[in-house]
Amino acid sequence: FGIDTDENFVITTTNRKEITEDNFSELVQDGVTLYLLQSVDQMLLSATKERIDFLPHYDTLVKSGMYEYYASEGQNPLPFALAELIDNSLSATSRNTGIRSIQIELLFDDSQGKPAVAVIDNGRGMTSKQLNNWAVYRLSKFTRQGDFESDHSGYVRPLPVPRSLNSDISYFGVGGKQAVFFVGQSARMISKPADSQDVHELVLSKEDF
C-alpha cells in the first residue's frame, strides 16, 4: 500500500468501526469492504463502491407485491404500496426529539432520469450494513438476528392507535422491496446515519437481478 514504516494508520469497516485484534474475527469476513485510513474519522477523498451479491427471492421478480395489493378487495393498490414506504420513515423518525418530517415527491422531470417516487424523511439514517440487510428479501425488520444489523435496532412496536403516526402501518404489510418493485423497476436508497459523516447509497434494479 506504499505505507512508510513510521506512518500510523487504521483499518475500519464502511461503518467506521476500527479493526482491532479483539474484533478481527467478528468484523473481517469474506467479501467485506474495508477502509485503510490515517484516522477513523478521516474524510473520504472520493466515493467508494461495494457490490452486494445475493440471490433475490423469486417473488421480488415475479410477484412484486401484485398478489397482496390486488387482493385488497378491489381498492386502488397504489396507496398500499406508498404506505409501506412511508412506514419505513415512521419507524426511522420514531425517536426524533424534534419535528418529524416525511415528504412524498412525484418526480417527472426527464432531465433527472426516469419518473420516480421519492419518500424523504429526517430519521436517524442507516449504515451501509443496514442498507445491505434491507436488500435481503423477506428479512423482517423485527426478526434480524446474528450477523444482521437491524435498521430498526431498539425499535419497539407501539400500541395501535387509529389514524395516528404512532401506529405501525406495515404490521400486516408485505415489505418495502415488494412495494418498490410494484411502483417501479428500480430502487435507490440514500441515507446518512445521524452520528456519521458518511452518506450511504444502495441501488437495486430488476435489470440487475
UniProtKB/TrEMBL annotation:
Pfam families for the chain: HATPase_c_3
InterPro entries on file: HATPase_C_sf, SMCHD1
BP GO terms, sorted: double-strand break repair
Protein name in UniProt: SMHD1 protein
Organism: Atlantisia rogersi (Inaccessible Island rail)
Gene name of the record: Smchd1
